[in-house]
Design brief:
- This protein is of the alpha/beta class and 177 residues long.
- The protein has two domains: 102 residues, Rhodanese-like domain (Oxidized Rhodanese, domain 1, 3-Layer(aba) Sandwich), CATH 3.40.250; 60 residues, no CATH class.
- It has nine helices and seven strands; from the N terminus they run βαβαβββααβαβαααα.
- It starts with a strand and ends in a 7-residue tail after the last helix.
């Protein structure tokens, strides 16, 4: 799949191209390119916006460009035969080029970062309590380590599911379906 520089992408958007943000809804809510449709990778096959009878170009982006590059073949398939591009460097390069970005400082941190903070904090707490109170608190650190390994191997993260249900994340949760 071809890549396109942010300035050239802006020119295609001005001509009516479709811009698709493949990040999750919580990431998109925090910071996004104005006018971009948020269609997470897992929902690309059910995206009516990508069925384009006019055959105009479709541009895909993520934060840094790594996710779009890693899933280029799936993105090309999702483009349904339209001319398709990956915005080189993603949202980060878009910002470096001085192009407009919409941000919501009130949006929660991305779910992955929330998981990292929660697990890191619990690991630190378990270690301190094991050193100061009882070595039995090492079970907490072992449980968290096992949970991280399971999440990495299976793609299922119970901590992320739990955090997604927290009140501060409800407004930005992607609709089911």
């Amino acid at each position: 799949m071809k890549t396109i520089a942010p300035d050239a992408a802006r020119a295609l958007l001005d001509q009516g191209a479709l811009l698709v943000d493949i990040r999750n809804a919580d990431e998109h809510a925090r910071e996004r390119i104005p006018g971009a449709y948020c269609i997470p990778l897992a929902q690309l096959d059910r995206a009516p916006q990508l069925a384009r009878p006019d055959n105009r170009a479709v541009l895909f982006h993520c934060r840094s460009g790594l996710r779009t590059q890693a899933h280029a073949s799936a993105l090309e398939t999702a483009a349904n035969g339209c001319e398709a591009y990956i915005v080189e460097g993603g949202l980060d390069a878009w910002k470096r080029a001085g192009l407009p970005v919409a941000a919501d400082a009130g949006a929660p941190l991305e779910l992955n970062r929330q998981v990292q903070i929660a697990v890191g904090g619990l690991l630190l707490l378990g270690s301190v309590l094991a050193a100061l109170a009882s070595p039995w608190f090492l079970l907490l650190t072992g449980f968290l380590g096992a949970g991280l390994m399971f999440a990495g191997l299976s793609g299922f993260c119970g901590m992320a599911l739990l955090l997604a249900r927290m009140p501060w994340n409800r407004r930005w949760r992607a609709p089911a379906g």
